[in-house]
Amino acid sequence: MKVNRSILPPGRIGLAVSGGSDSVALAFLLTKGGKKKNAEKRFVILHVDHGLRKESREEYRFVKNLAERLGIPFKGRHAKVIREKGESLEMAARRVRLAFFEQQMRLLKLDAIATGHHMDDVAETFLMRIKRASGAEGLAGIKEKSQVGSIRFVRPLLGCRNSELTKYLEKYKEQWREDASNDDTSIERNKIRHEVIPFLERTIDPKLVPHIYKITKNLASLAHHQPNLREKDSSPSTHPM
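-> structure tokens emitted (241 positions)
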């Protein structure tokens, strides 16, 4: 697995852990199972219970217990998600989550928040943005570093496949929590994940995901060197946080 620790700032880092395999793997990989020197000072696990599913309370407890096992501080919130005018439920949940992250950045003096986004997320976002005829900046999609308001995000697992992360956890007999809504193929991202990408891998390119990842890196470089190609593409349905 290609974990890019070089993008991590030297100060304190929040780890956004939902309880899913990717974010649990993030916590273990960056803290070395809690054994990394000064891990308790360098990292803090952040979790938001949006209260939108019956399993969310148990997931909160799971993540809190995970932090205790790793010897890492934990900061969580049981939130109440209320949609504002014109917002979808997903947009409202994202707004609540970002507000929590922004608050913790300030209170805990965090230098960045790390998320467990991986290579498969990059490919899914790329395919979702094709239908909007996004330019180079938009198609570049999820980046290793980004800024949302006052929040600095870093994503050290973009070079990893989701399957690699789950195998890593299984190797060490670690558990995670599955969100049942991730199997709902009426949701565009899930349809791409479970139907579109497997079909394209079978019929066109078995290495589709790493090839798309390479394309997005090339597009990001192109947009960086040619400012006229840049665009703001932060639709809540495809934004990486």
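The chain has one domain: 7-229.
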